[in-house]
Amino acid sequence: MSDVFILSVLQGVAEFLPISSSGHLVLGRNLLGMGEVGLRLDIFLHVGTLVSVFAFYAAVAVRIARGALGADGPAARRESVSYILKIVLSAVPAGIVGVFLKDRIETVFASPVAVGSALVFTGVVLTVTKFIPKGTREVSFAKALWMGLAQAVAILPGVSRSGMTLAAARAAGVEAGRSAEFSFLMSAPPIAGAALLEIVKALRAGSEAAAANEVSWGLCAIGAVCAALVGYFSLALLLKSLKSDKFWMFGPYCVLAGVAAIALS
To answer: Is 0.90 topped by the overall pTM?
Structure first.
């Protein structure tokens, strides 16, 4: 129970704060001596953080949906359809990498040393954003693709998805609030896709093999709720850090965490 709680908190915090959820989950499992926790819990934790995205940006999601359906007029429809197409475009790079290379990447980066090195890289990128002026621009199609490429890099465990996408947006001159909104809405397809891939893996593994290391359904549900609640407040904290220009301060933490992971491995 306590192990599942710790992992769900890690997922909720690190999925949105720019400190890498995949990296912290690898390190967390190693520190707890858990090894693999099974596909079921992994899927539930991903779904939990996906729920927190839609809960946090519920008003935005409703506005986009209404606009796309034509409920608010032709201009709103064009704007909403354009926004949706940008999200789809941003998901393409991560989708390609995820389908063809995700298993190979995760095998190579399963060790604390590799994850620690990736965390150091994340920390350096985040720290550099301190020296990039704040932007005022909207998310264009070109900027959406640029953020999507940054998101694809974050498939490496230890490289933060939010850190890479928000750093890319900052470099492209996108306004902080708009970059955060787009970054987390664009996370929905990859998070959902990752959960779907895990479900496919479980089905291919067969019920007996898949059940060997599985956490119970009840604990998985508790983990999902915990990840969703923690994720919601993590989103609020990240948005505050962006608007107060303290986003870069997550960088030194990632560097220290990465160095500690390497030293203790």
So the answer is: no
